[in-house]
């Protein structure tokens, strides 16, 4: 099926989910409770799974748009400017008044190479199907006006709304394909990273919805799978027949499966020195999607994802990926 997920070059990939602010605190060792500690370094960075993936996609040369809710708060200008500097479109974002920007404090221990994330989302609401219909897929939108070839969803607490959005895309595809055989349907991908999403995927019958599904290592392990091969075999029967399932497994690389190719694997690509692993999963996802949109074979796609993710782990943030000149 992966040969059919390529998109037209003038179409964007839309990343839907969270954008927030990350505060990084770098220490030599993890802090001891109830003691004062001096950090080696501290810096701010825009974060959020979907926001990060959109940024990496644009850095690698893709046409990216981010869609989510943004608080009208003191961090708003910082978030919007950072997206703009990275050529990520944000014109359709829903601005929420009287809300607080989500914040993550990221504690990085150089000694153990651990990363601890403390996240706060006080009152920023999630996207709704109404937002999606108003901003992205309006009723009676003509295919010639459609800007997107691929829409990616970060699995979040609005699973019910996400399921409705994906079904709306499915109905749009069916309608336009019935009227025009040359219509290229919108590809849909979904990320299951957060452990609390497990019950929602079943409740709203979401396993059968996406064309491409990304599963995190932590999510797979929480479901009882101890290897990526076991995860592939366990999760794949839950998906629709023509779908693709992909799972990154940290230092062991990544695996993917489709009915056409069977199971394929990629090795991990470690940098000489690990500097910052925060956002590595978002990078893998984004780079893999980029390769899929170009019609590359499934094994090449996850290999490209692992290569770019490995390079990201060797640098702070994402900006130096521009210097690597990756070719899909």
Description:
The protein is of the alpha/beta class and 328 residues long. It has nine helices and 15 strands. The longest helix is centred in the middle third of the chain and has 21 residues, at 159-179. 42% of the residues are buried. Strand 11, helix 5 and strand 12 form a beta-alpha-beta unit. The protein has a nine-stranded mixed sheet, sandwiched between helices. Strands 3-2-8-9 form a four-stranded mixed sheet. A two-stranded parallel sheet has the order 5-7.
Tell me, rounded to a whole number, the average pLDDT: 95
Element-level helix/strand string: EEEHEEHEEEEHEHEHEHHEEEHH
Strand proportion? 15-25%
Number of strands: 15
Shape: globular
Helix content: 25-40%
What strand order characterises the main sheet? 6-4-1-10-11-12-13-14-15
> How is the main sheet built?
9 strands, mixed
Rg, alpha carbons: 19 Å
The end-to-end distance, rounded to whole angstroms, is 19 Å
How many individual helices?
A: 9
Q: Which stretches are low in confidence, meaning pLDDT under 50 for 5 or more residues running?
A: none
- Which structural class matches the secondary elements? alpha/beta
GO molecular function: ketohexokinase activity
Protein name: Ketohexokinase
Pfam family, one: PfkB
Domain Carbohydrate kinase PfkB: 11-319
């Amino acid at each position: 099926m992966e040969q059919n997920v390529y998109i037209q070059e003038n179409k964007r990939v839309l990343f839907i989910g969270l954008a927030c602010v990350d505060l990084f605190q770098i220490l030599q060792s993890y802090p001891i409770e109830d003691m004062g500690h001096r950090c080696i370094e501290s810096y701010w960075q825009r974060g959020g799974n979907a926001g990060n993936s959109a940024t990496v996609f644009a850095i690698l040369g893709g046409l990216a748009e981010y869609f989510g809710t943004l608080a009208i708060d003191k961090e708003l200008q910082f978030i919007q400017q950072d997206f703009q500097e990275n050529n990520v479109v944000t014109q359709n974002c829903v601005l929420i008044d009287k809300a607080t920007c989500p914040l993550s404090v990221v504690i990085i221990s150089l000694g153990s190479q651990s990363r601890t994330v403390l996240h706060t989302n006080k009152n920023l609401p999630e996207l709704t199907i109404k937002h999606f219909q108003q901003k992205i897929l309006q009723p009676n939108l003509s295919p010639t006006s459609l800007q997107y070839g691929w829409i990616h969803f970060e699995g979040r607490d609005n699973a019910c709304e996400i399921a409705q959005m994906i079904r709306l895309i499915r109905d749009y595809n069916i309608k336009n394909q019935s009227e025009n055989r040359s219509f290229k349907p919108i590809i849909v991908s979904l990320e299951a990273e957060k452990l609390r999403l497990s019950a929602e995927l079943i409740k709203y019958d979401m396993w059968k919805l996406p064309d491409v599904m990304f599963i995190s290592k932590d999510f797979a392990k929480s479901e009882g799978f101890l290897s990526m091969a076991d995860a592939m075999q366990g999760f794949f029967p839950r998906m629709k027949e023509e779908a693709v399932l992909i799972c990154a497994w940290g230092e062991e690389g990544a695996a993917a499966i489709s009915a056409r190719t069977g199971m394929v694997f990629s090795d991990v690509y470690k940098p000489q020195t690990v500097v910052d692993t925060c956002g590595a999963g978002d990078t893998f996802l984004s780079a893999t999607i980029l390769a899929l949109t170009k019609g590359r074979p499934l094994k090449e796609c996850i290999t490209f994802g692992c290569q770019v993710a490995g390079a990201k782990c060797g640098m702070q943030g994402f900006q130096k990926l521009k210097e690597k000149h990756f070719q899909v």
